[in-house]
Each structure stands twice: as C-alpha cells, then as structure tokens.
Design a protein that fits this description.
The complex is a heterodimer of chains A (about 180) and B (about 600). With about 180 residues, chain A is an alpha/beta fold. Chain A contains six helices and seven strands; from the N terminus they run βααβββαβααββα. The longest helix of chain A is centred in the middle third of the chain and has 13 residues, at about 65-75. Classes of the chains: A alpha/beta (about 180), B alpha/beta (about 600). The complex binds flavin mononucleotide and iron/sulfur cluster (2 copies). One iron/sulfur cluster binds next to α20 and α22 of chain B.
Chain lengths: ~180, ~600
C-alpha cells in the first residue's frame, strides 16, 4: 500500500466549528485513517508540523502575531494549503472588529468596560499581539484551495479530502455548497 | 430634539415648490442640502412624509449621491477633483496645503462647522485644473496663492456669491473647431426647416446623415428615434403608439473623467442643443423633455434656464411650436448629484424619477420603457447639437465628412501632458498621431482614449484612427508623457471605479474593491508574479459578470495596461513567492504601544 498522506490542521482566529464539522464525517473517519495520517493538529496535540506535510487545513482568520507564525509554518511544510470556512476565507465573525479601531477594542475589554477589576492592558512576551485588522489567510500566504461554509459540512470535508487523496482536483457539487 | 418651526417651514416650502412630486425627490434633496449643508434627519422625515415615501427610501437616495450627505458639512464645502489629470497637476499637494492652512482633513468638517474638505471624481475642468468645487460652484486653476485667498475668504465667512469672479472663471478653450463648432445654426433655423419640410423629411435627413450617438456607444440616432416613435407593441403585436406618452432626454451627465466637451456645448451652443431636442420631440411625438445636468455643472444652470425662457418667449418651446398645431414641447432641467453611473441611460432615468441611480435590466430599453415606463429617447448633448445642424443644413452636409462607418465630426476634450489642452473637433478618421501633433504633445508615453472606461494605447498604435470602427470615444482624450507612471494611472482609474460602483451587483461592487486593493498592493511594492494570476482572472470576471457598462469596463485599465505595458508590472514585482499587501509589523503598532512592548516577539517580518 502507498504511503499515507499527512494532514495537518489548525484553528487560527476560528471557533473550532470547522474542526467539529470535520468530525461529522462520523464513522468514515475509520476509512479516512486508511488514507491519511494526522500530523500537527488539535486532534493529535502535535505542536509543530513535520518537515513535509501533504495537506494543511486552516480554520479561522489571522488575528494576531502567533497566527502569522502558525500560518507561515503551515505554508512552509504543506504541499497543499486549504482555507477552510468563512473565517479563513473572508475573516468571518472575528473580522467584524475591523470596523472598530483596535485602540477602542482593547480599551473596552481591558480598561473601561463594565466590571473590570484592576484595569490594564495585558503585557507579557508570552502573549501574542493583536494585528490592527483581522485578515483572511490568503492575504498573508498563497492559498491553494478554498473550502467554503460556516462551517463546511462533514460531507464537504470528506469529498475534498478523498478527491485530493485520489489525486484529483477537488470539486464540490452544488448540494455541498448550497446552504439554505 | 424638536426642530425649529422656521426650519420645518423651509423644508416644506422646498417640497411644495416642487409640487410634492416624487419624481422631484432628488431635486428637493439637493435644495435641502444647499440650505442645511447636509440632509438633516428631521428634514428627511418631513420630505418622506410629504411625498408619501418610506423614510428609508429617502435616506437611500441621500446615501447614493456623493453631493448629498447625512452628516453635517461645513458652511463652505470644498471638494478637489481627484481625476488623474488634476492629480498630475498637483491637486493632492494643493489639498495638503489647504488642509494644513484650514486645520481640517479631507473627509472631515472643522469643529466650528465653518468648513469641510473632500475629493470628488471629476469636475469637468481637466483642461483648466487643478480644479474643484466650493458649495457646488467650479473653482478653476487652483494654485497656492489662490488657495491663500480662499482660506482668507473662508475664515472671514465671505459668502461664495461675493468671492472674486476670476476664481470661477471657466473658458470654453476651443482650440480647433470643426464641422459643428464652426457653423453654429441660427436660433430657430432647424425648427423652421422642420416645420417647413415636415417631420418625415427631416427624419430622412437625419437618417441620411448616418449620425451615430456621441455619448460612447454609437447607436444610430435615426433608428433609436424610429424605434421610440413606433414601439412598443402590445402582446398581440399591435402598436401602442397612441396610448403612450413619449419623452426626450438629453444626457448631460458627462461624468467620464477627462470629458468636458458637453460643458462647452452647454455654455456656448445651448440653443442648438435645445433645438436638437425639440426636433427630436417633433419627430418622435414627445411633449416633455429633460436636460439631465450633472451636479458639478451647477454654474451653468441659470444661463440655461434663461435660454429656455427665451425660447419659450419665441415659441421655440411651448404650445403649437412655430404655429404648428399639436407640436407642443417643453424642457425641464434636472440636476444630478455626483454619481458617474447616472450617465448610463437607464440609471439616468431612475435618477430622473427621483430614485437611486441603479441601472435597470435591459431590455426593455428606454426606447420601449424609459421615463415612467414610457418610450424615451436618451441622447448625448453633442448628438442633439449635431441633429439641429443636420436639420438645418441637410444630411449630406454631415455625411460627406468622416469615414464610411463614422460620419461627420467628433468633438474631443484633450487634457494631460500637452502644450494646448482644450476642445478639438475633427472629422472622424483622424489619426492619434495627428491629434498629438496639433495639441503639442511630446514624449508621449500613452494616450487614454475614452476615459477610464475606454482604452490605453501606446506609441506603437498612434497610427490608429478615431472612429467607431477603430478607436471610439465619448470625448475623453488624456495624454501622458514619459515622466508618468502607468501604474499610477491604473491605480487612479481603478479607485475611480471602486468609488463609483453603484453597489447593485456583486461582481462589480466586490470586484472593483478587490481590484483596487490588488493594484494598490502592486503600486506599494508588495506584489509578486503570483498576484498577476489572480489579478487577470479577477479582471476578466468583473468584465463578463457585471450588470452594466460601468462594471463591464471597470477592469479595462488593468487589462489594457497589462497588455500594453507588461513591463511596468514586472518592474514592481518582488522576487519572492508571496508577500502580504500591507505592512505586517506596522499593523502590530497599536497593540505594541498599548501594551508597552518592544521585545523581539512583538515584531513581525514582512
Ligand atoms: C457608466 C456609464 C456612464 C455613461 N455616461 C454617459 C455620459 O456621461 N454621457 C452620455 O451621453 N452617455 C453616457 N453613457 C452612455 C449612455 O448610456 C447612452 O448610451 C447615451 O447617453 C446615448 O446617447 P447617444 O446615442 O447620443 O450616444 C454612459 C454609459 C455608461 C455605461
Ligand atoms: S467558519 Fe464558521 S465554523 Fe468555521 S471557524 Fe469560522 S465561525 Fe467557526
Ligand atoms: S456593474 Fe457596477 S455600477 Fe453597474 S449595476 Fe453593477 S454594481 Fe452598479
């Protein structure tokens, strides 16, 4: 049998809904394991990508400096990088803060908001700094495919990955991108 | 907050002056804006209630037109033209200068409410720029010393009506008149001919002249009129001629940056334009006409009204024109309010009806269902001027000039890098090289024929000819010399379309903004050759998927420059696979400052 494909996944500025939806492939996950092996991912708790990964799935947009580093690590390791879900593709819900100056966001959360005790802006080198705007991932790195949805359905994940595993260009039939 | 009674009365007076008609909504809002330097919420509610419209409808109209504003503007509202030729004449630097002197930024109103600044797409003064508008009135030939004086007038609150006249002085600047401009008709000459020879005979003359529309698309004028006069039919195929009212509309929106020939026709040949409209009305059987005048040409309005009054007095307008029974026609002036898309004929009609200027689905075309769903002819100013001359001098006079497929002459507006910008009229078929020679253009890098929505051509193509079958143009002819950067031009045009997109259809609304961001990325030096792949497919998509001519031509600057000046793009590309289009480290600055950090982890590499 051919070597298994390596898949890495991560959530940047996302809600993990995309990851949960991925798990909606249900028992097909057993078939999936015949095809692939998981590398860096919240599912495996592996912290960094191997040198060579076949498929990278990114959920969420780019909100802070850590997101930038993570995304760059994925891009460096992954042969094929996929933006998964509305947040990775457009910035999604977190990007709603783009209409409010970051200054005001931070002040409201840490200085002036109701019920704040000991107001201060957190400052620690372990904490990533926020970018002034939330960006879709294709504004930071080259992205090979976009898997739309909020979240994409389990079936859409299944279709995308099995297509790729079969060496085909992934395609989504209408019923997999039809949301209402 | 209650609104003072005197304010309420002012609004009510404006509404009743316009006979409480919904079609006058835009005209009403323009006057409200004039009165209050914005459209106040209370005024909005009064207008909506009086006209029987939803408040959101009225608000939607205010938001659509750039010369209307929900936010309070200054008592002096100064806009600078942001057209590329004004920019190249230093308009941006002058704005910085003005803004520093007044202590207010473009897009803002000073806290004392005295003055606000901004940019507008084009004022139609490209040959005497840098230009602008103060409270809707033209400001020509701006420079630092003029700005010093303007600042002084503003600070002393001298009303615009008392400003020195030279600030508003605008010349026709006719450098080289041709067929039309050399032989203006005598007042009434065309109408007398029409009444003497009969409508059918004059229609045949227009048909013989081969006249095609001068607004850009070049549709045959005689055919447009015939369709309007005959159509539409009902479902059984029988004619509805007698059941329909008909309308004649003169398109004086002239919004294409670099075009200003209609300005000259309306300033010095308005009689002839109105006469052309009246000829059209006689032939198609219309009783009512409109001149849709772009908001930026406000200054022309009083003299145009005077000419209309004069024509009424002479019975060139009104009932039984020149004694001919049943030949009744009058013309009303409607002002636009700063929306380029309103030059598109169906958007123009929406705007005439007092609505947002969103292009309609075509067909049905205006000749079948136009103003108030009635058959309507929409023609350009120059087309009507030509019609009057043809009615007076005959079709053959016109048809012997020009080329086989493009008869007669074309008036073009030349701006940009040449010694003698201004108005030139040529018989169709003239080569670009000859035009460049005439206006004293040297070291020419490129010519933009037809404005941002037209095409860019480079040196290899100066032998090409001005004609519908080769290079068509509505009248814009911008010249750029070798000191100019093609990508700066593309950037300006791309911003123009993103700003002017009416937002109705997604390919254009979203596409023009993506295009703008991508061109900015290239100009700012963040792009790589990979960006080009996305850029070209995006451009092609916008062109094919957009609803109206604006979106369909919005990618022309990118597509044209890619094919004519590919090196300009390559020179900007970075030799990496990909790079973000914004300064990554810079975008951490706010967070860095607020958390008082400057450690290595508080920075990012590009
Ligand atoms: C976005 C857009 C803007 C236009 N602007 C103008 C304009 O300012 N003046 C004009 O005469 N035609 C303009 N047109 C063309 C008109 O839709 C229409 O074709 C023209 O007024 C018809 O008159 P003509 O046959 O005399 O040329 C524009 C078209 C589009 C799509
Ligand atoms: S796309 Fe939807 S499900 Fe996925 S991370 Fe964003 S919000 Fe969550
Ligand atoms: S193409 Fe642009 S301007 Fe035309 S209807 Fe669509 S959004 Fe409006």
């Amino acid at each position: 049998m051919a070597e298994k494909l390596k898949i890495a996944t991560t959530s940047l500025g996302g809600c993990f809904g995309c990851h949960m939806s991925f798990l909606d492939i249900d028992e097909r996950i057993i078939d999936l394991f015949d095809l692939v092996e998981f590398d860096r991912s919240p599912l495996t708790d592996i912290k960094h990508c191997s040198e060579y990964v076949d498929i990278g799935l990114i959920e969420g947009g780019v909100c802070n400096s850590e997101n930038v580093h993570t995304l760059r690590e994925f891009r460096k390791s992954c042969k094929v990088l996929i933006a998964v879900g509305a947040c990775a593709i457009n910035g999604g819900l977190p990007a709603l803060r783009n209409f409010i100056p970051l200054e005001e966001c931070l002040a409201e959360s840490y200085l002036t908001g109701e019920g704040i005790d000991n107001p201060q802006i957190p400052s620690d080198i372990e904490l990533p700094l926020l970018l002034d705007k939330v960006h879709p991932i294709h504004e930071l790195v080259k992205v090979d495919y976009f898997l739309p949805g909020c979240p994409p359905s389990g079936n859409a994940f299944w279709r995308f990955i099995t297509d790729l595993a079969a060496g085909k260009t992934p395609t989504l039939p209408y019923d997999l991108v039809h949301y209402d | 907050m209650t609104w003072s009674e005197s304010k309420q009365e002012k609004v009510l007076a404006i509404v009743s002056k316009h006979e409480i008609r919904q079609t006058r909504l835009l005209q009403i809002l323009r006057e409200v804006q004039d009165e209050f330097h914005c459209v106040p919420k209370n005024a909005l509610e009064i207008v909506a209630a009086e006209l029987g419209l939803a408040r959101t409808k009225v608000e939607g109209v205010v938001q659509f037109y750039s010369l209307l504003s929900l936010e309070q503007q200054g008592r002096f509202h100064i806009l600078f033209s942001d057209s590329i030729t004004d920019q190249f004449q230093g308009s941006r630097e002058l704005m910085d200068y003005l803004s520093a002197k007044l202590g207010v930024k473009p897009g803002q109103t000073r806290s004392d409410g005295k003055v606000s600044l901004g940019f507008t797409s084009c004022t139609g003064l490209c040959d005497q720029g840098p230009a602008g508008l103060v409270n809707g009135h033209w400001l020509s030939r701006l420079n630092e010393s003029r700005i010093d004086r303007i600042v002084d007038l503003v600070e002393r609150e001298v009303p615009v009506s008392s400003w020195p006249l030279e600030f508003f002085h605008v010349e026709d600047n006719i450098q080289s008149p041709g067929l039309l401009l050399q032989s203006p008709i005598d007042q009434g000459e065309a109408l007398k001919q029409l009444v003497r020879e009969g409508f059918e005979e004059i229609f045949m003359e227009i048909n013989r002249s081969g006249l095609r529309g001068r607004g850009g698309a070049g549709f045959e004028t005689a055919w447009k009129w015939r369709f309007c006069a005959e159509g539409p039919e009902d479902y059984s195929g029988s004619s509805l001629v007698d059941k329909n009212e008909r309308f004649v509309v003169c398109n004086a929106d002239e919004g294409e940056p670099g075009t200003f020939k209609d300005r000259i026709l309306l300033n010095s040949y308005a009689h002839q334009v109105f006469e052309g409209m009246t000829v059209c009305a006689g032939i198609v059987g219309a009783k009512q006409g409109f001149l849709y005048l772009r908001g930026e040409y406000l200054r022309l309005r009083p003299q145009l009204e005077a000419i209309l009054a004069n024509r009424r007095a002479k019975n060139f307008l009104g009932k039984s024109i020149l004694g001919r029974n049943g030949f009744d026609f009058d013309i009303e002036i409607h002002m636009g309010a700063g929306a380029y898309v309103c030059g598109e004929e169906s958007a123009l009609i929406e705007s005439l009806e007092g609505k947002r200027g969103v292009p309609r689905v075509r067909p049905p075309y205006p000749i079948d269902r136009g103003y108030l769903d009635q058959p309507t002819v929409v023609n350009n100013v120059e087309t009507f001027a030509a019609v009057a001359a043809i009615a007076a001098y005959g079709g053959a006079w016109f048809a012997t000039q020009g080329t086989d497929k493009s008869k007669g002459s074309k008036i073009i507006s030349i701006s940009g890098d040449c010694e003698r910008p201004g108005i030139y009229e040529y018989d169709f078929g003239i080569s670009i090289a000859e035009i460049l020679m005439d206006c004293g253009a040297e070291n020419t890098l490129a010519v933009q024929v037809g404005g941002p929505s037209g095409g860019i051509i480079s040196g290899k193509e100066y032998h090409r000819k001005l004609a519908f079958e080769d290079l068509g143009t509505g009248g814009s002819f911008m010249i750029f010399n070798k000191k100019r950067d093609v990508l700066e031009i593309v950037r300006n045009f791309t911003h123009f379309f993103a700003h002017e997109s009416c937002g109705f259809c997604t390919p254009c609304r979203v596409g023009t903004t993506l295009l703008k961001n991508e061109v900015d990325k290239i100009c700012d030096g963040h792009a790589t050759s990979l960006d080009l792949v996305g850029l070209s497919s995006l451009a092609k998509f916008i062109k094919t998927a957009s609803h109206c001519g604006l979106g369909q031509s919005a990618a022309n600057p990118v597509l044209g420059s890619l094919s004519h000046f590919p090196q300009a793009y390559k020179d900007r590309f970075k030799d990496v696979v990909f790079e973000p289009g914004f300064d990554l480290d810079e975008s951490l600055e706010t967070a860095r400052r607020m958390s008082a950090r400057d450690d290595p982890w508080a920075h990012l590499e590009q």
